[in-house]
Amino acid sequence: MRDKRMTLDEVVGELRSGMTIGIGGWGSRRKPMALVRALLRSDVTDLTVVTYGGPDLGLLCSAGKVRKAYYGFVSLDSAPFYDPWFAKARTEGAITVREMDEGMVKCGLQAAAARLPFLPIRAGLGSAVLDFWEGELATIPSPYPAADGRVETLVAMPALNLDAAFVHLDLADKHGNAAYTGVDPYFDDLYCLAAERRYVSADRLVETEELVKAVPQQAIILNRMLVDGVVESPGGAHFTFSGSYGRDEKFQKHYVAAAQTPESWAEFKGRYLDVPETEYQAAVHAFAEEQKL
Amino acid sequence: MSVTRAEVCVVAAAEIFRGAGEIMASPMSTVTTIGARLARLTFEPDLLLSDGEALFFAEVPAIGAKAPVEGWIPFSKVFDVVASGRRHVVMGANQIDRFGNQNLSAFGPLQQPKRQMFGVRGAPGNTINHATSYFVPRHTKRVFVDQVDIISGIGYDRVDPDNPAYRFHHLHRVVTNLGVFDFNGPDHTLRALSLHPGVGADEVAENTSFEIAGLAEAGETRLPTEEELRIIRTVLDPKGFREKEVAA
């Protein structure tokens, strides 16, 4: 069986500007932040991003890498809730958005996973979602009238086909079997099913035998068919949470505060983002120690 | 100890769920969470309550506390519940208009807003699939507007009567720090059901951009019973988080 281990920078080396990338997790929960940081260090740009957005989308916006975004929401999940970099990109009109109902994201990924052009869904009808999509979102009448003869017309959610997917899980083997250990798988399996190239980072890489003993079978949401590259990345979801650590609320607040002025952001970027992942983790550790004083 | 405005709001929030039966109650704020739990502990014992993350509570805990669980409800399954219709959500709102259109997405033009909030979240899917209510802890003209900037949650004037896909749309209540409302005014417009003790019709009118039906006739919101007060104060919210959400 293939050994799919890669480094963060090797993964990003396989991406190209202009791609459509799906980013797993949810809000500020189990986001593949180390992979996002690797994207920030690269010259890959002009991206279309599909996500349940959190600071992943914020960081990509901070570097001007997003051209178009498909999302159900963008939230940091704790105060001040609204991501400052996403907000800035929006108020400056720097990105085109295809905002949609949260359930439509799942639906679009399911359509892509099943290689269907669309799936019908009720959500979106009557709302501003159709306006957000500027003609790219259609409705479809049912070919089966109800008993009273009336025809139901639904949103035809188009497949959210992805060039690449980034997800972060707690535990993986080198072949791409991977598991979550928290309370929610989110939609990481769907992102991988919807994508051409699939990359998973994991807090810990273990042998297959250890993986299957460590978690209930139902928690192994990725199999080998769904993964092209595996990266061992301890703390790779930081500052969002993963199964084995909570969200770093202090650091997330630090991120928000740093976004407020060009000077504070330059300092944040120099210390945390213009450095390899190992130095990021060391700097984050140092930040945590400073906070204790 | 006299009853606070927040406690009146908690009971009004609980009343949202009267008659709901065996469905998922999804309150999105502190006062409405206390309200849903109060309903479950008193007149709606079959409600399903989650921890807001991925677990169904078997027993009803205080705000911020844990409790034994009875099941699993990760986000993916929440969308299944939404589509099934077996849910009543109580969302917040940055704006609501007279027909019940709601905005929590952003202010200003769609592709270049003046202020960014969450995006539409689950509001379009919630409002077209199952009962939806709103809670507004500060009733002002800036919230109750003539026209919302971005329609996240759909109002009655958005319903296409020729399309049965809209048949599950139902906006049940709006509870604010001033009163309790529904959309049974003329043409499904906002109507006053009751005003909280101490609130006058003038105060509500001054804080709403449009005319509210039935405002002059509205009675007084009921006070908590002694048992409800005991549950709110000693069981569900002994630390008084409710008072932080609704100013006295």
Automatic annotation (TrEMBL), chain A:
SMART domains: CoA_trans. SUPFAM superfamilies: NagB/RpiA/CoA transferase-like. One of its GO terms (molecular function) is CoA-transferase activity. Keywords: Transferase. The keyword 4Fe-4S does not apply. PANTHER family: KETOACID-COENZYME A TRANSFERASE, SUCCINYL-COA:3-KETOACID COENZYME A TRANSFERASE SUBUNIT B-RELATED. This is Acyl CoA--acetate/3-ketoacid CoA transferase subunit alpha. It comes from Nocardia mangyaensis. The lineage of its organism: Bacteria, Bacillati, Actinomycetota, Actinomycetes, Mycobacteriales.
From TrEMBL, chain B:
It comes from the Bacteria. Keywords: Transferase. GO terms for molecular function: transferase activity. Gene3D superfamilies: Glutaconate Coenzyme A-transferase. InterPro entries: NagB/RpiA_transferase-like. Belongs to the 3-oxoacid CoA-transferase subunit B family. PANTHER family: ACETATE COA-TRANSFERASE YDIF, CHOLESTEROL RING-CLEAVING HYDROLASE IPDB SUBUNIT. This is CoA-transferase. It comes from Nocardia mangyaensis. The lineage of its organism: Bacteria, Bacillati, Actinomycetota, Actinomycetes, Mycobacteriales.
